[in-house]
Design goal:
This protein has about 240 residues and is an alpha/beta fold. The chain has eight helices and five strands, in the order E-H-E-H-H-H-E-H-E-H-H-E-H. It has a five-stranded parallel sheet, with helices on both faces. Helix 2 runs antiparallel to helix 3. The longest helix is centred in the middle third of the chain and has 26 residues.
Amino acid sequence: MNKTTLPPLIAVIGCDGSGKSTVTEALRAWLEERQPARICHLGKQSGNIGRRIARLPLLGGKLDKSIHAKARKAQTDKGPGLLAALVIYAFSMRRVRRFRRMMRLRREGNAIIADRFPQLGVPGPMDGLGLASAGRSGLVGLLARSERRRYEAMVVNRPDLVIRLNVSLDVAVARKPDHRLSSLARKIADVPLLMFEGAPIVEIDAEQPLAEVLALAKAAIEERLDRNEAPASSPLQECAA
């Protein structure tokens, strides 16, 4: 299947609390009325795992604080230590596996609604490089270079359309009270900076009623599909093994 016959790849992005899960499920059901469609979640799930750890009795809170401190250190100029780098790299490889599965489903004829999408422009929690600040020598540097190669292979396959769900910090906190305020604030700040290799982006105020958000998203997808142009994606490239 060549790039001119591939089903659409629609990415839905936004901070936690922007409604990505609800919107992606509604769009999948709507798209499936015309063709097979699948949701592919491309997050690393590290935040969900951290929140489960925090709820553990006795030591959960301390472990969560320790993990959070190491994650913040990983984004400083010094970069992470070896153990933290290995954990960050493992989560990144989880995203790579999910991305490969998504591309396989697309080649099999499924329209894809991607919940989140990898990007190289902004390191950190909004689906960017986790080891961007890692040193260039030693095992940590080797892991950082390996992570970057895999992200470069993924982002070549840019979405046909990006739906960016925008919410304020107050709304994100109200919708996700179990999330760290600092984490939500960082994501809110990063969301507008994500460009996804020049893919077309539609901006949606996700604080509107759900019906209005969905109407805007569907209209944007309809416009994109009805152009009968070749998809915006570049030729498929497999992520490096």
